[in-house]
Amino acid sequence: MPGMQLHPDLAEIAPLVGTWRGSGRGTYPTIEPFEYTEEVVFAAPVLKPFLVYTQRTRHADTGEPLHTETGYLRTVEPGRVELVIAQPTGVAEVHAGTVSAGRIDLRSEAIALTPTAKEVVTVHRHLVVDGDVLRYRLEMGALGQAHQLHLEAELRRTD
Ligand code: HEM
After folding, report:
1. 109 - beta bridge partners?
2. CB distance 83 to 95 below 8 Å
3. Spatial distance between the Cα atoms of 159 and 152, rounded to a whole number of angstroms
């Protein structure tokens, strides 16, 4: 992004900045497997050491809107990141993790649920940026099931 000003502490996560589109697959023992399309934006709107993260998905076949979420990814010290995310399903995730050579590994420190949200206990998020390709995997422990894969996706930079 020519001319964009980034806080110097963002250097390790700067490769995320931009708009990404692609597709993914979802699975869990309690549901039928599904495929989705996704748009992700990581933006650095102000000269501060955090990125604004937004995500929207649609069902790959029907185009119906599926999951969406938004949050903040911040750098706290070299090699370390923190993430907070809010979801319209009543789930809020608080993560801590590491960043190294374009790879980000996050584990939930806390998951907070509204009274009617589905029971999510743990979430791990793994992202790899390789040039113009962003891949991620998301594992969760929810609804009494063992912690396991829920999502994997591959996105490409569109700006
Ligand atoms: C790309 C993002 C995501 C997509 C496309 C997605 C899609 C889906 C779909 C289609 C279902 C089954 C139908 C439904 O209950 O609506 C589902 C279920 C579920 N998802 Fe996700 N999801 C995403 C992210 C997440 C995240 C981040 C969490 C937790 C933090 C989560 C937790 C759950 C839970 C708890 C269920 C309920 C399973 C059940 O009722 O048996 N999902 N998801």
Report:
1. none
2. yes
3. 22
> Please, what are the domains in the chain?
8-157 (2.40.128.20)
pTM over 0.70: yes
Cβ of 155 closer than 6 Å to ligand 1, yes or no, is: no
Cα first-last separation, the chain: 8
The C-alpha R_g of the chain, in whole angstroms, comes to 15
149 contacts 139 by C-beta, under 8 angstroms: yes
Report the C-alpha gap between 80 and 74 in whole angstroms: 9
Q: Is 17 in the pocket of ligand 1 (CB under 6 A)?
A: no
User: Tell me: the pLDDT tens digits for 87-128?
Assistant: 999 999 999 999 999 999 999 999 999 999 999 999 999 999
Write 73-79 long-range contacts (CB < 8 A, 24+).
Answer: 73/13, 73/16, 73/42, 74/49, 74/50, 75/9, 75/10, 75/12, 75/13, 75/49, 75/50, 75/99, 78/12, 79/12
Mutation choice for ligand 1 from 83, 150, 152, 154, CB with most ligand atoms inside 8 A: 150
Q: How many angstroms from the chain centroid is the CA of residue 10? A: 17
